[in-house]
Amino acid sequence: MINLFKTKIGRLRILAILEGISLLTLVFIAVPLKYGMENPALVKMMGPIHGTLFLLFLFNTLSVGVEQHWKFKETTWKVLLACFIPFGTFYIDYKILSKL
After folding, report:
1. pLDDT-based confidence at 66, cuts 50/70/90?
2. Angle of CA points 14, 18, 22, to nearest 5°
3. pTM assigned to the model
4. What residue spans define the domains of the chain?
């Protein structure tokens, strides 16, 4: 795990996992609590955290894509799309990022 912090791809993988966890927490726990139990506290807390992780993931994906000379139509768009889909970042980490 410590080795992941040493490279840009490693840091992108960490961001992918954190962003995925924050999205799942928001979608499957915080939003149902807000609308089902009328308790918006978790959404208020997780919303900005997820937003920050989302933006960091986007910017780091573009940075790594440029650095690694990824072709946008082959790799970059898939990685970018993953952060919009629940479980998407976990899939992209397994299928693409872990092999780089």
Report:
1. very high
2. 170
3. 0.89
4. 8-96
